[in-house]
Amino acid sequence: MPKEAGPNAWPALELREWLATRDTLHMWLQIIGKVRLVQTPWINHSWHATFYLTSRGLTTSPIPFGDREFQVDLDFIDHRLAITSTDGRRGGFDLEPQTVSAFYHRFMTELDRLDLPVRIVDRPNEVPDPIPFPADDVHRDYDPDAVNRFWRMLVQAERVMRRFRARFLGKCSPIHLFWGAMDLAVTRFSGRTAPPHPGGIPNLPDHVTREAYSHEVCSCGFWAGTPPIDYPAFYAYAYPEPPGFAGARVVPDGAFYSPDFREFVLPYSRVRESSTPDQTLLEFLQSTYEAAADLGQWDRGALERRPRD
Hints:
Blueprint: H1 15-39, E1 52-53, E2 57-59, E3 63-65, E4 68-75, E5 80-85, E6 90-94, H2 100-113, H3 144-165, E7 176-178, E8 183-193, H4 206-212, E9 215-223, E10 233-239, E11 256-258, E12 263-267, H5 268-272, H6 277-295, H7 300-303
Antiparallel strand pairs: 1-2, 2-4, 3-4, 4-5, 5-6, 7-8, 8-9, 9-10, 10-12, 11-12
Helix pairs in contact: 1-2, 3-6
């Protein structure tokens, strides 16, 4: 049985403490993520474009480029971006306060220097009022301590989400970080197709959203917060949302259904301050999934296995 992590393993970080840094980091991740997006063959539900956690930060994993591959790693301990290629060449630069415009040109110049010229759509997705990356001199903050704490929050969230993911036998996503909303997510599938999604996500083509939600899902994850949820939180939702889902009883105390986001929300502080944080988060993930699966009439007997934790 995995060892329960103590409360001290879960760092504190309120959104207001690092909002400017969060917004800058978000745009940097979109730039890097778009490079992976255009170079990688399409995988269902945009799984080809995400980031993965490492023992030091985030990685793109290998990205194809002709008969070579390259990888981009973000080190949130030494605060450095590294680009490595299968031909042995490497590049990178320090992560430090700089505008999105400066980061964009610096990153693209490094790729060109390594004979990895990539061109992307240079506008952010999934944010209101996007500023093109080459013109964004607004976002420029980088607080290394806050970024490190955010990454350690992701590490703890992923560790527990791995246990939750292992309980499912059906189609299930990796645990990965989407750069569109900068959220860590894992998604379970019922196996049935879903009605076409209405779309409407800011600055994201509706056909991308509809492909992402082509099949019934129950998804959960963690993000730093977005008003009116202006604090870090865990979330869980179902698409299509079955009747009665919003009124379902879920645990632990402190979890609630947000009509703004149409998902259940559990404040990160509720987990962090629990005497058993792992169990508190697992209860939220499991109870919200059971609500979605039962109300949606999923074939749970065929899709689940008895947990070994």
